[in-house]
Design a protein that fits this description.
Blueprint (H helix, E strand, L loop, with lengths): L5 E4 L16 H8 L2 H8 L4 E2 L4 H6 L6 E4 L2 E4 L4 E8 L4 E8 L3 H11 L4 E7 L4 E8 L19 H58 L2 E4 L7 E4 L1 H15 L15 H12 L5
Antiparallel strand pairs: 1-6, 2-5, 3-4, 5-6, 7-8, 9-10
Amino acid sequence: METPLIVYNLGDRGRKHRGKERNFNLRKLAAAINSDETQERVKNRDMPGFYGHLFRARFGLNPPETVIVGGNVVRLDPAFVTTHLRALPDGTIEHKAEFLNTDAGQLAQKAYASKFGGFSSAIDQIKPEFCGFDYVFEPNFNNNRGYSVALDSVSVAERDAVFDSIIVAEYKDQMTGCLRLLDSVSKAHELALQSVDHLRQENEELMSMLAVGRDEAALDSVPILPLSVSRAPAQRIISDIASFRNARLPRFVEPKGDESGQMERAYDRLLNRFGIGG
């Protein structure tokens, strides 16, 4: 969704009792907005806007795509891009914005459709450089709604006073989250120790049952856990020896003699051949 052309003048905030008066150098600011560099950014859709000013306040007027916060990578999703931007010498600013299909973009688009909030400029007065617009609840220039609290000329002291409270609140939230995380890790560690102790007891019981049921010998040494060694192979060897000793081995049966004596002579030859004879 793209907004219609939004027009407002830097000399008319449209407010009397809230916000802050701005004293821009209109000539320099108009030159910065109409410069080839700024217009190229607008043409290439390289001028993102965010939902609120917090990202720019914490990470610079031109924040990166991602930042590291508390050791975690955090995406700085934009809410819209500026698709048209022009400045006139009298301080009139024209611009259009296209809302993006991001979470922040959907929030900004819903607020815009509900006629709540408006656009607020982010300007570096020192260069000067026009960095873009953000969508805020209460824009300093009331006519810049499309139907700035502007970072452009907020002093360092004002910026610290405003955003320190936000940072402190975030710090408290982070500390609360860290304490909850540590408590959760401590409980998990305690449960793990209990599980290890329970498994150790079960293992000892199973080892004892195996030692009794399988006739095993335990080798107990201080540096290591009790080690069980089966005696079954040795018992099998002893049993085989005993069986062999008691086994009935094949033997020659002395034949009954006959009148010729041939059987006796053949029997004697077999005994002599195998070394059995006397």
